[in-house]
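tool=predict chain=A
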Amino acid sequence: MAKNAGIFPELDETRKELFVLLSQYYIESRYAEDRKELAKNCTRAVTEDIMKKTSEVLEWLKNSLT
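tool=predict ok
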């Protein structure tokens, strides 16, 4: 997604890692056989951390586009 939008080079390493992580969830969520394995890793703490980081990146994107 970030590569398609042309912003991947602008991302710091932390944001790049987040995009890679989110891409894994997107890809794996499309395949039913992988959902159980994916769910094992989705603890409350992990999910809250991903949501926090995602919110921060969304805010950065909004500020970058204005």
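The first helix runs from residue 2 to 5. The chain has a mean pLDDT of 80.
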